[in-house]
Design brief:
Strand content: under 5%
Helix content: over 70%
Structural class: mainly alpha
Number of domains: 1
Order of helices and strands: HHHHHHHHHHHH
Distance between the termini: 40 Å
């Protein structure tokens, strides 16, 4: 009996590499499935291609001339840091819609009948969305260069800015997956995602400095994750950053704030999304 008991942990340990290998294989297959769907329906990329381009041109040439920056600086260079955060976090409603669609069409029932990891479905979706966010980052950067945005810092700082932006967007993807698990129709996911994201986007320094907001609203905007993301990108790109004069912790340490917000979103929403998915797939 002692020998058998002693061998149990060893057997479990020997299974772990196999389980991990199957999990990675499941994630790779489901990521490929999501990407194949995007290739078949390229219009699903509008939220990371056409939409950011419209916002860049709209704010640069319609509203930019009416928005003064405390401390001076060009608005076109100020804008791109905010657009990166807004564009990547804005993919979360699309993730919610995609998850609700898969649940409502019976696709998840087919997955449930297969010997595969439940978490792999969500992980595959999130990785596919991360790859589309890379496309969105390229679009925003290209549009910025076209309107006069320039980088005034080192290659390492630029790489850090884009890395933080993609981490930030990936964390919001899990929030979108969690929202998709909690709703019952794609229409509801699209509408609620828009209602939740719109205040997050505009009550921030993504497009305007927070110094011009009412006093009671400024702390809300300064602690907004999008404000930290925009301030971090502006600082790392060497662009105008009025938030550097704001005496609040997220604005004084934007890179740490972005990393902290991203970690918090992942710790809260990734396990919750998997739990909701398991519960919903069994119902």
């Amino acid at each position: 009996m002692t020998a058998i008991t002693a061998n149990v942990p060893r057997r479990r340990a020997s299974r772990q590499p196999g389980r991990l290998r199957w999990f990675i294989s499941d994630v790779a297959v489901l990521t490929g499935r999501s990407l194949a769907r995007i290739i078949g329906e390229p219009e699903t990329l509008m939220d990371v291609t056409v939409q950011p381009l419209i916002f860049v041109l709209l704010f640069a040439y319609v509203f930019g001339g009416a928005i003064p920056l405390p401390g001076g600086g060009g608005y076109h260079e100020y804008l791109i840091g905010g657009m990166l955060g807004m564009g990547l976090a804005g993919t979360a409603p699309g993730t919610a819609v995609a998850m609700v669609t898969d649940m409502s069409t019976g696709l998840i029932d087919r997955f449930r009948s297969l010997p595969m990891s439940r978490a792999a479905v969500l992980a595959g979706r999130s990785i596919a969305d991360l790859l589309t966010q890379v496309i969105g980052t390229v679009v925003v950067a290209g549009a910025g260069l076209a309107i006069g945005w320039r980088v005034h810092s080192s290659v390492a700082d630029v790489a850090t800015a884009f890395g933080l932006a993609l981490l930030f967007g990936y964390a919001f993807t899990w929030a979108g997956a969690c929202l998709g698990m909690a709703l019952r129709s794609p229409e509801a996911a699209q509408q609620i995602g828009f209602v939740l994201f719109l205040p997050l986007m505009f009550v921030s320094n993504a497009f305007v400095p927070t110094q011009g907001m009412p006093g009671w609203l400024q702390p809300v905007a300064e602690w907004n994750p999008l404000s930290a993301m925009a301030a971090a990108c502006r600082h790392l790109f060497g662009n105008p950053d009025p938030a550097a004069a704001v005496h609040s912790w997220p604005m004084q340490h934007p890179e740490l704030a972005v990393a902290g917000w991203s970690a918090l979103l992942l710790v809260v929403f990734a396990p919750l999304a998997v739990r909701l998915y398991r519960r919903k797939s069994l119902s």
